[in-house]
Design a protein that fits this description.
Strand order of the largest sheet: 1-2-3-4-7-8-9-10
Strand content: 5-15%
Low-confidence stretches: none
Mean pLDDT: 94
Number of strands: 10
Distance between the termini: 46 Å
Bound molecules: zinc ion
Helix content: 40-55%
Largest sheet: 8 strands, parallel, barrel
Length: 430
Amino acid sequence: MLDRYRFIKTMSNPLTLGKYSFGVGDRFARQAKPQLQACLQAAAAGIDVTPVWNKSYREHAIVGSTPASVRAAAEAAVSELKWTRPFHVDADHIRIDTVDQFIEASDFYTLDVADAIGRPAGTQDAQAFVDRHPELVGSLHVSGIEEPFATTPADIERIAAKYLRAAQEAGRLYRHIESRNGEGRFITEVSLDETDSPQTPIELLVILIALADEGIPAQTIAPKFTGRFNKGVDYVGNLAQFEKEFNEDLAVIAYAIAKYNLPQNLKLSVHSGSDKFSIYEPIRKALARTGAGIHVKTAGTSWLEELIGLAESGGAGLGMAKEIYGKALDEIDDLCAPYATVIDIDRARLPSKEEVHDWSAAQFTNALRHNPSCEAYNPNLRQLLHVGYKVAAKLGDRYLNMLDACQATISKNVTENLHERHLKPLFIGC
Ligand SMILES: [Zn+2]
C-alpha cells in the first residue's frame, strides 16, 4: 500500500520549511525589517525561526496591493539586515480562481479548501476510500493517544464523505501550482480553518490520508481548532480541551508521516487570527515534549503595532491614529462584514469619536495595546481597528508618509511585540 505514496522521497532537494516558522503578515509592506529584527533576536537566543511573509487575496484586494510587493519588502529586509537563513513568501488562503497572480512572487502556498468541506465528493469516492483503507476500521492505536480510536466502516465513510472533496480540491490546486513552479520548488500548506466546526483528531487523520492519496506533499496543515479565534484578541474557549486536541493532533501527524509517507517535516499550522497568547504555553510544552515543529500565523498584529507607533509618536501621528479610529467607527458595518465569523465586538463598549479625540497618546496606546492586565485595554476597540486597515489603505500616501515619519517608534513596537509577546512565550518561555 505504501507504494502509492511517493512524495518528497523521490524529489531531489525539495524546498523544505524549517521546524519553527512564523507567518508575519504585513498589510502595507513597511514592517518587514522590524519583523525580521524579532527573528534575529530569537536567533541570538538560539531559536531558529523562519519568517514567512503571508498575505491573502482578501488582504491584497482590500489594500490594493500585489503579491510582488510582499516579496520586494521581504527581500529588502533580508538584504538590509543580512539575514542568511531561509525566508518565504506565502500565497495565503488561495483558491483556484486566485492563485495565478501569486505564482511569480510566492514559494509557499496555503491551499484554502474549507469551502469544499461537506460538499459531496460522490458516495463512490467515500466508499472507495474505505475500501482502500481497511486499516482505519476497528480499533486504531495511535502512539501518544491514550484511548484507541474505535471506528466502524460507516464512521470512516462519513468522515471521508465530509472531507474528500476538500482533499480533491487541494489536489487540483496543488497540481496547478506544481505545473507552474515545478515539483519540490514550493512549500504546500493545506488550510481547513475557515469553517464552522473544528476537526477532531480522527478527522484530521482521514484528511491527511486523503491528502496523501492525492499526492500532496503537505508540509503544514491548518485545522480548525476548538474555541474562538477572534481577530487580534486572545483565545476564548476551554484551554484544557484545546491542549488535549492539540497534543492528539500532533500524535496523529506523527502517525501519518510514518505510515503514509507524508513529508517528514509535516507540522501543524495555527492560524491564530493574531495574538492567541494563552495557547502559547500549552503549545510550547507540547513541542518540547514531542520535538514537533510548528507554524504560527499572526498576520494582523503588526498593523496594530503600526497604529500604536503612530499614536505613541504624538502630534500628527496620534492625530492620524484617531482619524483612523473615527472613520472605522463610521464604516463599522462595512469593515466587519468580511470578518463576521471571527470578531465579537460589543459596540456599546466602543468609545465615541469625541471621547477618543481628547485622548493622550498613552490613553490611545493603552486602549489598543494587547495587554490584558492593563485596565484601559479595550478588546472591542482593538478588534475594530484590526479589521479597519481598509481605512488606512484609503488614506493612501498620507498614511504611508506618516508611517515614514513615525517609523522609529513603529519599528520599536513591531519588533518588541513579535519578540516579547509571540516568539519568546512560544519558543523560549517566560
Ligand atoms: Zn486561516
